[in-house]
Design a protein that fits this description.
It is built from no helices and eleven strands. The protein has strands at 4-7, 10-13, 18-24, 33-39, 46-52, 57-59, 67-72, 77-82, 91-99, 102-105, 109-114. Strands 2, 4, 5, 6, 9, 10 and 11 form a seven-stranded mixed beta sheet that branches. It has a four-stranded antiparallel beta sheet with strand order 1-3-8-7, with no helix packed on it. Strand 9 (91-99) and strand 10 form a beta hairpin. The model has no long low-confidence stretch (mean pLDDT 96).
Length: 115
């Protein structure tokens, strides 16, 4: 069974930075795409950033220029570097992997940005 385990969330002041990590239990090349979603209280889950097995990336407009998704194939880990954090970035962040039409989700990590 595939597992995605997130880490790196926490409490940070506005303007600060965090780096989220998503460790996969198998080779991340097996995923067509991996990404980060977030869900704030009372809101729908939304895509934050994604990266394909070929290295192409895409970002939500709200995080462009502030967040960077990357991958370390040797560590089977995907990262989300978040800079210039804003209170509206507060949410539970989830790692997602898409492999052969199957969706895999991590358990989530909480990010709270205070002003």
């Amino acid at each position: 069974q595939v597992q995605l385990v997130e880490s790196g969330g926490g409490l940070v002041q506005a303007g600060g930075s965090l780096r989220l990590s998503c460790a996969a239990s198998r080779n991340i090349f097996s995923f067509n795409r991996m990404g980060w979603y977030r869900q704030a209280p009372g809101k729908q889950r939304e895509l934050v950033a994604a990266i394909t097995s070929g290295g192409s990336t895409n970002y939500a407009d709200s995080v462009k220029g502030r967040f960077t998704i990357s991958r370390d194939n040797a560590r089977n880990t995907v990262y989300l570097r978040m800079n210039s954090l804003k209170p509206e970035d507060t949410a539970d962040y989830y790692c997602h992997g898409l492999s052969r039409g199957d969706d895999y989700w991590g358990q989530g990590t909480q990010v709270t940005v205070f002003s």
